[in-house]
Amino acid sequence: MTFSVLARDPATGDLGIAVSSCILAVGRSVPSALPGIGVVAVQARSRRGLGRQLLGGLAERSAPAELVRAAAHAAEDATRQVAVLDRAGRVAAHTGPAAFPVSGHRIGEQFSVQGNMLASDEVLPAMASAFEAAAGSLAERLLSALTAGQDAGGDLRGRQSAALLVVSGEPPDEEDDGVRVDLRVDDSGDPVAQLRMLHNLQRAYDEADYETLAVFAPEGARDLYGALAASRRGDRPAARAALEAMRSRPGWTGWLSAMSGDARVSAVSRLLDPTSPS
Question: What is the pTM of this model?
Fold first, then answer.
């Protein structure tokens, strides 16, 4: 009923999981992760709370293989499917003997792919190959694997939801909660594509990609990002025009004035200065 990939990035130590299924809000039920601890996928008819229990075992320094064996032995349903990855990249997985066909898992170097009720035997090999061949950040590699799984048929029943969760391999602290990506598509006709779009949007926010945000940010904020993008490329008339469009909306003049002292948007401050040259 679900296909997923979990992995560790050996370059950064980040840990992550991407998952898709033909159920509502798969991000609520399958993936679990704790910064500095590990990542878990709990699929098929596994009971709620198992993901938290497995992460607790990792926190107590139990090995993934040990945790997976215990979960398989204690399974109340032979359809259970689980995968566990720790902060060192050790990974283990189990597919119950009565899991809905086509089902199974594949373990690679610091990653695994798993699924049940799949459209074909090609889904898991396609995911593993795509992950191994992909470049970029861990989130991008996870999305490549998920996309390959969907292109190979994905969930036999169809498409509905997807999720992407990436956390740091180091414990959180007062300055950093350790969550790198936490995105969900709860109900969509093409959830994997929608998830990729959301990740691209988050990247634009993280990297201050104003050109992208001027097109894809929520409508009410596009003029702000358009002004910042125009200012960055030296097009002051376009930047001022965008700001004037914002001023014409009720309530935005006061907000823009407050933003004028924010160092993160110093370009806006300069553009709002009536003494600054056009």
Answer: 0.90
